[in-house]
Amino acid sequence: MVLVSRLHPIGLVIALVAAVVGFLAPAFYVRFLRQRRVTQIEKQLVELLPMLASSLRAGFAFQQAVELAAQQLSPPLVDELSLLLQDVNLGATMDAALQDLGERVGSPDLDMVITAIQIQRLTGGNLSEVLDQVAETLRERERIRGDIDTLTAQQKLTGLILSLYPMGIGGLLLLIMPDVWTLLFTETAGWFLIGIALGLQALGFFAMRRIVNIDI
Fold first, then answer.
1. Closest CA to 66 of 76, 58, 53
2. What is the pLDDT of residues 159-208, one digit of tens each?
3. Alpha carbon distance 120, 142 (integer Å)
4. The domain 2-212 is classified under which CATH number: 1.20.81.30, 3.40.47.10, 1.10.645.10, 3.10.310.50?
5. 107: closest CA among 24, 38, 178, 201?
6. What is the CA radius of gyration of the chain?
7. Does the pLDDT value for residue 209 go beyond 70?
8. Number of C-alpha atoms within 13 angstroms, CB side, residue 19?
9. pLDDT digits (tens, 9 = 90+) for 18-66
10. Residue 167 Cα distances to 15, 173, 197, 198, 210, angstroms
11. How far apart are CA 134 and CA 115, in angstroms?
12. Residue-averaged pLDDT of the chain
């Protein structure tokens, strides 16, 4: 873009923005895909736990209950359950396989389920009742998350607009008064001010996202 525009200020701005986006976009995309997968798994946990509890009440062992549930669920949770069963079949203990499952997925809800199962396996008790209680807790957490997302949607949109509109205004002024605004791209002080402005915009954006991102 710099070569095509022949060092025109607008070309330099576009090139700078494209370079930043090109550097950050892959990491954000991978993080988005990972978070979406974790969210899908957490929603499927509410289906998994009653299945396991029902199988345990019917007299199945825990591993058999997991195998039965894996036949009825869909990806991505069924993929993780298949890996869990594969680890056990290859000689790993159920506790070790569950621990690897939690580390692999990285979901707080799944960690809660695994912790409850491991505690019950150590202390004894009715695992089916424990799973029912955990399922109820997860359903309540999911309901609260939905309420929070609804309440913070407007604030998230406001933060995005406040982060983007100064750059839009700056581009518009550059088109209207190029003789004045080109000094920002031709003088050392101008580049310094642009760097400060972009840094503050990025800091403000992430600060607002952090404020409205409420963990349950």
1. 53
2. 777 777 777 787 787 788 777 777 777 777 777 777 788 778 778 777 77
3. 24
4. 1.20.81.30
5. 38
6. 26
7. yes
8. 8
9. 777 777 778 888 888 888 999 899 889 988 999 999 999 998 988 999 9
10. 14, 10, 9, 9, 21
11. 10
12. 82
Residue 83 has pLDDT above 90, yes or no: yes
Q: What is the DSSP string of 60-79?
A: --HHHHHHHHHHH--TTHHH
Structure-token pair, residue 198:
């972009």
DSSP secondary structure, the chain, as one string: -HHHHTT-HHHHHHHHHHHHHHHHHHHHHHHHHHHHHHHHHHHHHHHHHHHHHHHHHTT--HHHHHHHHHHH--TTHHHHHHHHHHHHHTT--HHHHHHHHHHHH--HHHHHHHHHHHHHHHH-S-HHHHHHHHHHHHHHHHHHHHHHHHHHHHHHHHHHHHHHHHHHHHHHHHHH-HHHHTHHHHSHHHHHHHHHHHHHHHHHHHHHHHHH----
- Residue type for position 133: Q
Under a CB-based contact definition with an 8 Å cutoff, are residues 166 and 197 in contact?
yes
- Polymer length of the chain: 216
